[in-house]
Amino acid sequence: MSISFDNALGIHEKALNFRVKRAEVLANNLANADTPGFKARDLDFKAALNSSLNQFSEPGAMAMAKTNSKHLTTNAESADSLLYRNPTQPSIDGNTVDTQQETAAYMKNAMDYQASFQFLNSKFKGLTRAIKGE
């Protein structure tokens, strides 16, 4: 009997990968805080989570597989696309990055990443104990 990591780990692996992508986007925003005309971007975790849950919750639903890079994306893939952030106070030069807001979002994302990582780590420890028969 083989172990299916998709069933064992569930959506948590995708959540961890999403947190990595979001950290890259937020770090890019912070790096361009002084670039004139730069527009702050972000990823919507709730939309990505809902699209992933809907993909698994529909009975009889089959996920589409891309076998060529020229194929169109599915709805689940487009849900985690970059969105522009609405500025609370845009600057005169057109830059919409608020460094305090970006830093807070980056730190919250880092804590969420750590929590997801610890959860996956405990899942792997449980699987290891089950395999060893402990």
Keyword list:
134 residues; mainly alpha; two-stranded antiparallel sheet; elongated
Provide a descriptive summary of the structure in words.
Helix content is 57%, strand content 3%. With 134 residues, the protein is mainly alpha-helical. The chain has one domain. Strands 1-2 form a two-stranded antiparallel ribbon. The longest helix is centred in the last third of the chain and has 34 residues. Keywords: Bacterial flagellum, Cell projection, Cilium, Flagellum. InterPro entries: Flag_bb_rod_N (IPR001444), Flagellar_basal_body_rod_CS (IPR019776), FlgB (IPR006300). One of its GO terms (biological process) is bacterial-type flagellum-dependent swarming motility. It is found in: Bacterial flagellum basal body.
Produce the secondary structure layout.
Blueprint: H1 5-9, H2 12-31, E1 41-42, H3 45-57, H4 75-78, E2 83-84, H5 99-132
Helix pairs in contact: 2-5
Which structural category fits the helices and strands? Answer: mainly alpha
- Strand numbers in spatial order across the main sheet: 1-2
Q: Provide a count of the helices.
A: 5
Number of DSSP strand runs: 2
Q: What Rg do the Cα atoms give?
A: 19 Å
Report the end-to-end length measured between terminal Cα atoms: 18 Å
How much of the sequence is in beta strands?
Answer: under 5%
Specify the biggest β-sheet: 2 strands, antiparallel
Helix content: 55-70%
Low-confidence stretches: 75-79
- The structural domain count equals 1
Mean pLDDT over all positions: 81
